[in-house]
Specification:
The protein is α+β, with helices and mostly antiparallel strands. The chain has helices spanning 15-33, 48-51, 53-56, 69-77, 80-83, and strands at 2-9, 37-44, 57-65, 87-95. It has a 4-stranded antiparallel β-sheet. The longest helix is centred in the first third of the chain and has 19 residues, at 15-33. The radius of gyration is 13 Å and the shape is globular.
Length: 100
């Protein structure tokens, strides 16, 4: 089943994003190589995230396949952005994908 992992950065901890990015992306690459990653994207409050993701990013969105909600939450909770406190809020939502 597909799940959306949505998180909002803690602005006071933004320096963590660059430092932890290689480990975060490595985990995403594992999902991709297993055919389980549908989408991974930093998001921002406005269009500047497309032009300046280093400073305009305010959070993350990942859509990936997992066995169940517990498995998805467990995977997301182990992400370095979560464990090291970059995010001030995060959640995992079950999805019914209607398009490929």
């Amino acid at each position: 089943m597909w799940y959306a992992m949505i998180a909002e950065d803690d602005p006071a901890r933004s320096e963590l994003r660059l430092r932890l990015r290689p480990e975060h992306r490595s985990r995403l690459e594992t999902l991709r190589s297993e055919g389980r990653l549908r989408l991974a994207a930093p998001w921002g409050e406005d269009d500047s995230v497309a032009h300046d993701p280093e400073t305009a990013t305010r959070g993350s969105l990942v859509v990936a396949a997992f066995a169940d909600l517990e498995d998805a939450r467990h995977w997301w909770a182990a992400d370095p952005y979560v464990t090291q406190g970059l995010y001030r809020h995060w959640r995992v939502l079950a999805l019914q994908l209607l398009t490929p």
